[in-house]
């Protein structure tokens, strides 16, 4: 079975990691702007005010703000059908509390969408991609405060109204299940508690995380409902970080632990978005985490009325789940697990598992029975620029096998809308702030400290992906 003729081939980025121009055009600071660069052994640090002795990679990022026409031309050359991007909330409402939006910020995205339209590329827009206005963290401690619900809804309504004829496909929150983990406490929820300023090791308060996540669920549902009122043709989806977890052994303890991991990692958030209600196992999760979730009157109806049109997710790797604490651990996107002896890993320890993508697609479609979209996937690697290009056969091999497994899932009967590999043009890492962890088809000449020309160079994978799109996935 070949890919559908209307399959949405493209690529994905996020404003905070790609856009730059952090203090231009009336934009206010976001939570991403307060994070320094880091490395595998040196996590990103959060500062309440900028420190001139530190480097903040999101300030410049890949400089899409100034080079969007050049970048969209490269996407057109590759043949993109869609481009997943995000809108910086603080570019539209610098503090999040203004009565009127920032016209200069709105105009910037008008220009971007117009350029995409001229290139024949459909935008897929994430409203909140790890980027809340910093002011809302300082004043309210982010999504821990329910008042962010209406502030977000105002932002969403402005975007839906302004771009109702330019954008059809929307996502509300990026990797919303990040809020299930300490990493997402700040990056996803904008909650900054006293304690270490290390992004990965902030003082964790599960009560605030789960309550903040509930506020995001309510905000997402209200936005979905409002978006459909503004334009009934809108297709509005959720976005969850997916990891295919396997039981390490046939030990029943491992089997049960793996089932619980799917519930916690993958289904808790998906069920609320798609089914419009918390799953039965949520109460046990709250109890075991010491959480007393506060739901206001009417919240249940809001969640039920604001279910999504499609389910989008990121997929990079798989992991094994075991109750044996002596086994070697592995790294991962948001969460790790036990090392799988049958798999290889990338330079950052993320295990490469194309077959797990087919498995995941079937699991999700069997549970939710709505269209799916893989909106992040790719190989982070150390690329070397040589004579104006990068010979990244390793990336081509990774993507080729994942595309083959998507085709298998289509033959299994999965309704798959599209595929947008992550960081299609090199960008800053969300986890570490590095530039050297590269995913793109296009090399961006900036290093980890923003030094370089910023010039773009086509990698070997650029021409390979161009061929894949032109053949609609037949020529791999």
UniProtKB/TrEMBL annotation:
Q: Which GO terms of type biological process are on file?
A: carbohydrate catabolic process
Gene3D superfamilies documented for this protein: Glycosidases (3.20.20.80)
Known SUPFAM superfamilies for this protein? Answer: (Trans)glycosidases
Q: Manganese: present as a keyword of the record?
A: no
Give the GGDEF domain ranges.
Answer: 437-476
The GO terms describing molecular function are: beta-glucosidase activity
- PANTHER family from the entry? 6-PHOSPHO-BETA-GLUCOSIDASE (PTHR10353:SF296), GLYCOSYL HYDROLASE (PTHR10353)
Family membership: Belongs to the glycosyl hydrolase 1 family.
Protein name, as recorded: Beta-glucosidase/6-phospho-beta-glucosidase/beta-galactosidase
């Amino acid at each position: 079975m070949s890919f559908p003729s209307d399959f949405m081939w493209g690529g994905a980025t996020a404003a905070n990691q790609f856009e730059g121009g952090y203090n231009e055009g009336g934009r206010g600071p976001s939570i991403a702007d307060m994070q320094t660069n880091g490395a595998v052994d040196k996590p990103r640090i959060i500062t309440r005010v900028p420190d001139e002795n530190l480097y903040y990679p999101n300030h410049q990022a890949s400089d899409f703000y100034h080079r969007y026409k050049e970048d969209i031309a490269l996407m057109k050359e590759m043949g993109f059908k869609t481009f997943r991007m995000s809108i910086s909330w603080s570019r539209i409402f610098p503090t999040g509390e203004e009565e009127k939006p920032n016209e200069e910020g709105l105009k910037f995205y008008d220009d971007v969408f117009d350029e995409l339209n001229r290139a024949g590329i459909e935008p897929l827009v994430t409203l909140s991609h790890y980027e809340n206005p910093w002011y809302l963290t300082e004043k309210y401690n982010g999504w821990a405060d329910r008042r962010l619900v209406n502030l977000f809804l105002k932002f969403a309504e402005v975007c839906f109204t302004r771009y109702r004829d330019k954008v059809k496909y929307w996502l509300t929150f990026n990797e919303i299940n990040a809020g299930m983990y300490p990493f997402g406490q700040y990056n996803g929820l904008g909650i900054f508690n006293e304690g270490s300023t290390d992004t990965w090791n902030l003082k964790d308060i599960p009560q605030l995380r789960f309550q903040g996540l509930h506020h995001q669920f309510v905000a997402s549902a209200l936005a979905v409902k409002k978006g459909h009122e503004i334009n009934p043709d809108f297709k509005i989806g959720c976005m969850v970080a997916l990891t295919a977890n396997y039981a390490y052994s046939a030990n029943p303890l491992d089997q049960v632990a793996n089932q619980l991991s799917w519930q916690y990692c993958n289904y808790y958030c998906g069920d609320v978005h798609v089914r419009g209600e918390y799953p039965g196992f949520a109460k046990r999760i709250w109890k075991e985490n010491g959480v007393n979730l506060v739901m206001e009157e009417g919240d249940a109806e809001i969640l039920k009325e604001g279910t999504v049109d499609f389910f989008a997710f990121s997929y990079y790797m798989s992991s094994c789940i075991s109750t044996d604490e002596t086994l070697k651990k592995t790294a991962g996107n948001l969460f790790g697990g036990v090392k799988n002896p049958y798999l290889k890993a990338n330079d950052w320890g993320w295990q490469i598992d194309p077959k797990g993508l087919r498995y995941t697609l079937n699991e999700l479609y069997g549970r939710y029975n709505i269209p799916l979209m893989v909106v992040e996937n790719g190989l982070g690697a150390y690329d070397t620029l040589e004579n104006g290009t990068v010979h990244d056969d390793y990336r081509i091999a990774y993507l080729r096998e994942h595309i083959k497994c998507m085709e298998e899932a289509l033959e299994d009967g999965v309704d798959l809308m599209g595929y947008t590999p992550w960081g299609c043009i090199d960008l800053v890492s969300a986890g570490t702030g590095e530039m050297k962890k590269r995913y793109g088809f296009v090399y961006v000449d900036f290093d980890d400290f923003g030094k370089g020309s910023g010039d773009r160079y086509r990698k070997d994978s650029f021409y390979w992906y161009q061929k894949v799109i032109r053949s609609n996935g037949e020529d791999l």
